[in-house]
Amino acid sequence: MGSVPIFLWTATALLEGYRERTLSPVEVARAVLERIDAFNPRLNAFHLVSDRLLDDAKAAEARWAAGQPKGLLDGVPVSIKDLVLTKGWPTLRGSKTVDPKGPWHDDAPATARLREHGALLIGKTTTPEFGWKGVTDSPLTGITRNPWNPEKTPGGSSGGAAAAVAAGMGPLAVGTDGGGSIRIPCSFTGLFGIKPSFGRVPAWPLSPFGTVAHVGPITRDVADAALMLSVLAQPDARDWHALPYEPRDYRASLDGGVQDLRIAYSANLGYASVDPEVASIVGKAVRVFEELGAKVDGKHPGFENPEAIFRVHWFSGAAALVRAIKQKELLDRGLLEVATQGEQVSAADILDAQMQRGALGTHMNLFHRDYDLLVTPTLAVPAFGVGREYPEGNKRWTDWTPFTYPFNLTGQPAASIPCGFTKAGLPVGLHIVGPRFADALVLRAARAFETARPIVLPQLS
Hints:
alpha/beta; Amidase signature (AS) enzymes
């Protein structure tokens, strides 16, 4: 990759270097560790870094030298969000209420698949407590910062994961997304991330927030996300919500382009209030699809704001989570507030919300008979100051994420790809939503956009 430093290489480029014997997993692991030493104290992306990374890299190097690489990611560093179980490491979920002693005997499906494919597990990335909000700070790990501007939030709840990838502290990260938690930080930090169709990536145990929660990749380009999804989507019998496994390499159809695709562009979904600078940047970016041969119509999908439906699902989950915790005085005050609201949700409310959720899903199924994709801004605002749940004028994190949580309710694949910068130099994300199970189509459209508008990474010194 020419003059690009090793710590900024994509996973795809690293693997090519290993194959050609021009690069070693040990070199890469050292570069990542040096980068963590240099920038993690400033950004607070990791709260645990493996003490075995170099040993694991040496084992990967030996396998490559013998011509016997292990799976699709042998020797590639990957971070794990601290909501995802990792055998031998505490999964503290950003909370002082979790006992670090464990025991920690299990890998979540995502972690298990990565190990099987030879990935080098770097460590655990920071998250708000139990992943409850769209920014990343917690009573346990403090504030995580944005590599583009450390005074701004990287978003959340996969904020540590995104900050790490953007800052060169590993090319791949496992994120989770229960209301936007992959797409929010990718928008704020200028990365690519996809929330796959619900059930595409097996998850276990089920999130406290139930079936709105997904697991997926955060990467520096679309090809890496396709590669990582090919690994994460492999089956695991512990997840009874998982989709039937489709053996496929998501890289195979990446370069099919968007010629003749029917794309609906909605600037505000018909109800959202969007920062004018964000709206302008996204509106200009959408023209790229037209230049690439797609047919783009200005078209709202035609549903009312489903925030009330989402809150019933999310806040009742928070209530159930908090109800089981004895040391409530140690919890994030905002989480307690949300849980208190969730305690007011009745069984009838939950049943009504489930029916409304189903109606929303049916509505979007019908919408996609006419449109292959829906494109919107990823978020209503650019990154705002650290230590806040929401920018001024909002009351909860759902107020500034109106484009993300609807598609957790519907289970559709949805991705964020950077599409420009504000005058203050902060990234803005473009949101690409596909029909259920059309993950490959979302990746293909994102790849076409990326080819025209390559992703730019922050320059840290």
